[in-house]
Amino acid sequence: MTDDVIENRSPSDLRTVISVDAMGGDRGAEAVVGGMALSAEINPEIRFIVHGDSARLEELIGKRAILSERCEIRHADSAIAMDEKPSHAMRNGKGSSMWGAIDSVRDGEATVAVSCGNTGALMAISMVRLRRAPGVNRPAIAILWPSDNPQNYNVMLDVGADIKADAPDLLKFALMGASYARNGLGVAIPRVGLLNVGTEEHKGRAELKEAHEMIAASSSQNDIVFVGFVEGGDIPSDRVDVIVTDGFTGNVALKTAEGTAKAIGRQLRAAFKRTLMSRLGALFAYSSMRQLREKIDPRRANGGVFLGLNGTVIKSHGSADATGVSAAIKLAFTLAQLGFADKIAARVASAVPHGDDVANAVRSENGE
Amino acid sequence: MTDDVIENRSPSDLRTVISVDAMGGDRGAEAVVGGMALSAEINPEIRFIVHGDSARLEELIGKRAILSERCEIRHADSAIAMDEKPSHAMRNGKGSSMWGAIDSVRDGEATVAVSCGNTGALMAISMVRLRRAPGVNRPAIAILWPSDNPQNYNVMLDVGADIKADAPDLLKFALMGASYARNGLGVAIPRVGLLNVGTEEHKGRAELKEAHEMIAASSSQNDIVFVGFVEGGDIPSDRVDVIVTDGFTGNVALKTAEGTAKAIGRQLRAAFKRTLMSRLGALFAYSSMRQLREKIDPRRANGGVFLGLNGTVIKSHGSADATGVSAAIKLAFTLAQLGFADKIAARVASAVPHGDDVANAVRSENGE
Predict the structure, then answer these.
(1) Domain span at residue B264?
(2) Tell me, what's the ipTM?
(3) I want to staple A167 with a disulfide (CB 3.0 to 4.6 A). Which of A210, A254, B56, B107 is the partner?
(4) Chain centroid, CA B100 distance in Å
(5) Could you tell me if A153 and A276 lie in one domain?
(6) Which of B257, B290, B305 finishes a domain?
(7) Are residues B118 and B226 in the same domain?
(8) Is A193 helix (H, G, I), strand (E, B) or coil?
(9) pLDDT tens-digit profile of B259-304?
(10) Global model pTM greater than 0.95
């Protein structure tokens, strides 16, 4: 719990340091520190810079031997409320645990920041403190969506960084999402699909048709395969590895899928309880059902990654418990080890002039 | 199979006549006629005007005794292809089975038309032949979404009539959806929610904030309770009876939910097969699982209702089998019996001047 834990570090050591906002989230610091402890147990290398109320954090961390000598506590006087407006947080958030967690990445003390707090505020403060990567107009939040693919997940973005995206934004989402699939999931040549209300090329909004042309034109130079338009039903499929959409549509799709899964879960539990026979059935199938529940447990794929900034920020679900927080930290550690932020910046920066050329070419072809 | 089946009919008799496009859909006339036969078995009053290739239809209907003397066949020279552009179908669709099915409603021979065909073409031809109801700018497609409510379903619209909707459109969707919930589901005072990416009033697109004010201002006069913004996870919940959104978002949400349910179904089957114990469990729980499958079977809530036209048109899923088609026909019959088209037209027409007043009042309040 002293500074020497992370001083005199080499760049490769730095890749083991995660900056944590301990005050965000619905369950408070208890769940966050619990998640850190779970991560520390399975990962002897990991170190934390923890931002929040120091008295509370010293108490919580002091109770967990596994965390001793792995955490540096940075006191923050305030915490961003879950219902605080992003614009207010951006103007008045200095001194908060969230602001501090992001500044640790900005200042090069940690590679990735993790917060369970208010998504809008986290994005707003991240934009101000880390700034957008060269060539990126709109950052995006990418998540891992359980899928039928060998890698078990597809990448879906944007799920809520912004409420809209134009065609050049969607092209960059495609490149950033592909980079995430390549680095985070090990898919060498990701297949990218653009979410629409039909797969025919004449369907959908104008910006989607334009984005379709732009992504198609740039796919071969960017080591992606563009599968064209995909529909909501394709998101968990093995037709595609990366699904690109604007943040409004992506957020509705994500929450609809979560709501559907929960509703089916409730129905399934009720069905198992319905008769004596089905109760017996539940007993026999218990181990397989538990394995299934773990496989599709949203807590285990917890963590929206903010892409398009000079640094990596991971938003954990606001209601995450220790298991959920630990999944977000595990993701943070993986991306930190890979030097993900540098890789994605290089990828987007190298693609940008090309991307803009394509945009201009497409626009001039269309006589605009 | 002769004209006298439906001639000399009174208005109440007419409410038993359903116009059917037998040539639409992925499975062809066989599935459609199969669905008609299933409906005829459970409903002795129902009569059909069937549009399609007369030779094929005579053969298919002739094989089913239950349909004899209940069907009038109307020959159509052509059928609209599933991938035909709506604009092309609208210009060249005359003489097709779809066009004929809609014209039977237009001409007052049948109360409701049912088609499994191309959604875009069906909407385009319906707009041209039936025209929009007074006060409606954009029609909408409403579906029944399985929910935790006592009525087992919520109404969701628009799921794909158009790719956008402005604030006055969303207000009318709220009124039309509430009318559907009242008539189709028996909910006296429907609770209406507006789909957004958060429940806070400052969130979302400009047209959603405007629609929020308009629906709130008109709710008490229209026998609805406006619950404000809802999120994707609320669609199957008991917080709300009617969910209002634009056709792009609604279509993505619907297909995402269907895809999620299918993916969970696949995982569940795999889990039951995994071990000898779980196979035994599946055997014991078989009856309860079958009941659950039937309850959430999308075929049983098959049928998107086109709202906002001078007449009712029901779009059955393109891949519907006989069970699915029969569900769509059952819905058509229920709405025909209720005189739904007249009720909804009266509701929207009476609300329109008011709705426009509200829109104008809100706009002038906002200094526009």
Answers:
(1) 137-305
(2) 0.83
(3) A210
(4) 19
(5) yes
(6) B305
(7) no
(8) strand
(9) 888 888 888 888 778 788 778 877 777 777 777 777 666 666 678 9
(10) no
